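Dear H.,

Thanks for agreeing to be a second pair of eyes. The structure we're designing against is below in token form, covering all 117 positions.
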């Protein structure tokens, strides 16, 4: 299925980026909104922080737990990408390459931001 190190690294970066997209990015907030309440609190020093509270019971709660767990969502995102590689090899190559480049760019940006601080 995975042919060599380059394909493995591309899949690794693609799974990383897709997972971050689902779990953290604002653009996919509409996916998480039915399952999470975002709560902002300010501590006595004036620092504001945000945490999530999972909504509902049963399936809604289960999906909320899944979407709040980077490790859990990462497994499902990786399974999705691997499944796409099997059923739609041409399209999955394009998607995996796109996500891998975006993932690598995100990592580079994080490194640069830490260096300039």
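And this is the sequence the design step returned. I haven't edited it by hand at all.
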């Amino acid at each position: 299925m995975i042919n060599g190190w380059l394909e493995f690294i591309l899949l690794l970066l693609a799974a990383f980026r897709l997972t971050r997209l689902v779990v953290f990015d604002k653009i996919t907030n509409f996916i998480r909104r039915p399952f999470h309440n975002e709560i902002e609190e300010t501590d006595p020093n004036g620092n504001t922080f945000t945490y999530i509270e999972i909504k509902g019971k049963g399936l809604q709660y289960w999906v909320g737990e899944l979407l709040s767990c980077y490790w859990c969502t990462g497994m499902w995102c990786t399974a999705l990408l691997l499944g796409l590689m099997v059923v739609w090899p041409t399209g999955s190559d394009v998607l995996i390459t796109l996500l891998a480049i975006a993932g690598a760019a995100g990592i580079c940006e994080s490194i640069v931001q830490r260096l300039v601080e």
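Two observations from my side: The chain has a mean pLDDT of 96. Residues 5-116 form one domain.

Warmly,
E.
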